[in-house]
Structures are given as structure tokens and as C-alpha cells.
Amino acid sequence: MVEDATLKRPLVAGENGGGSTAGGPPQKKQAQPPATAAEAVAFKNEFECKLAATLGLHEGARSVTFLRFSSDGKQLASSSTDGTISIWCPHEGKLLRRFGKDTAGPLGAHEKGICCVSWSPDGSLLCTASDDLTLRLWHSQTGKCLKVLRGHTHFVMCCEFSCRGNMIVSGAMDETVRIWETKTGECIKELPAHSDPVTSVDFSPDSSVFASASWDGLCRLWDTETGKCLQTVYISSNPPVSSVRFTPNGRFLLVSHLDSAVRLWDINEAKWIKKYA
User: Fold this and answer.
1) Mean pLDDT to the nearest integer, 80-103
2) CB contact at 8 A, 235 and 241
3) Measuring CA to CA, which residue among 122, 108, 109, 116 is closest to residue 75?
4) What is the pLDDT of residues 95-112, one digit of tens each?
5) Using CB atoms within 10 A of its CB, is residue 205 exposed (0-12), middle (13-18) or buried (19+)?
6) 194 vs 213: CA distance, rounded Å
7) If residue 104 lies in a helix (H) or strand (E), which one and from where to where?
8) Which residues contact 136 (CB under 8 A, 6 or more apart)?
9) Which of 107, 87, 118 is nearest to 149 (CA)?
10) Deepest in the core among 2, 16, 112, 263, taking most CB within 10 A?
């Protein structure tokens, strides 16, 4: 089932620094310092800003592309351009499991690098987005590939589970956002969301709304059920947007622009309220 171009790009009426047409974040991530020559995964103690652990290497010392803590904070997943996912114990710095061709089973592993990894809320599943144009669902304990989600026509750059884990949202270089049913692996909505690659997606805490961000300089809010665009958020200089996240209360969006600044957007008031630079 596909939603089509009834979602036409809204007129953008901005003032002084930008605005919205209408009417963040998430779990706090540990800071990631520049990778070593071996492309190791490292993270810092959030209070003392001291290096707490270096978590080893991916196969062939390839680049680490994404990090994601499980909802209980007890495991850390990392993805790589080598097409594998590693699961770590962040407190001990130990590798627990590594998923790839050796664990995938009949459905196989990714044929190219992985751009993003996401945990289901209960920690039982992982979703990965890849340059091979697919998303894959993995059993988080065995590393078996359970489903392959096909439909995007260019590199898949981001993915996120809904709050109940029954849906996945993904964005890709094909400029679309897709909603998938976790149980069946079927695409239930396809939205022509942006005019440039989609770099980041995120569900609101209750998953009634999701956000998408793009190199086109726009961040958009969508009604999950109808696929209607609710807000288009931007700044007047229109730098590309690299990441977007809802705050835990769902009232704000934290938006990262490629102008060396992060900004906080008040969804109800439809205005920027803070800039971090």
C-alpha cells in the first residue's frame, strides 16, 4: 500500500532565521571522538569526559558508521562499512556478538556497508539500513536475519523502530521515506518526502508523528497514520540537515545542521527556541 504525491511540498513562510509551515533527543548518546587509524569504537564518560573504553575493531578495520544503545542501556550496537553489526557490553568494553554472513542464515547478510542500526524497544530485534538498498531485521541474540525489506531505490541511510516495535520508518538517498510493518516486512507507506537524500528519521514518543531530515535543508513532521505533512521546519540560510531527534516528552525537536550548530524547535509554538554552536 503506497501513499503518493498528494503530499505536495508545503509553502514555507519563514522569518528571521527560519520557520515552519504549520498549524527531540531521544535517548542521550555518548560522545564519539574521532576514530583511530584502526577505526575503533570509543566512548567517553559523560560526567568527567574521560575515555572510558575502546571497543575493538570491525572486520578488516573498516569504518564504524553508527552507534546505538539498547533501551535498557546494557548493550551497544555498532554498524560498519564491512556489512556487519557488533554488540558490545559498554560497561566492560567486551564484544558480545557479531552478526554478518556467518550468522545470517538463508536470507543472507548485507552485500554492502551498513549506514544505520536501530534496536526494537524490547531489545529482541535489530534493524539495519544499508547501501545495498535494503533494510534487514535481525534476531538480537542469534544474529539470524529474519526479514529483508526491499523497496528503496538508492542507499538506505537511516531507520527507526516505533515505540511498540510494530513499525519501522526508513529514509534513503532516493529522497523518500517509507513505513514498514515489522511483522510482515511489508512497506505500508511510501512518501515523496524531500528533494534531496533523507539523512535522519525519528518517531515521536507515542509514534503518532515522525520526523524526517534531509540535505535539502528541511526537517518535516508527518502524521504516521495518514502520511500528511504537519510541519516543515527550516532556517533561512538553508544548510543541509544531518540529524533530527524528538525530546523524550515529544514537545521539541533537536535538529543538527551542517553549519556547525544544533537547534531546538518548539513543535507546539512552531518556532526555534535555542541554538547550540
Assistant:
1) 94
2) no
3) 122
4) 999 999 999 999 999 999
5) middle
6) 8
7) helix 101-104
8) 107, 109, 110, 127, 128, 130, 145, 147, 148, 149
9) 107
10) 263
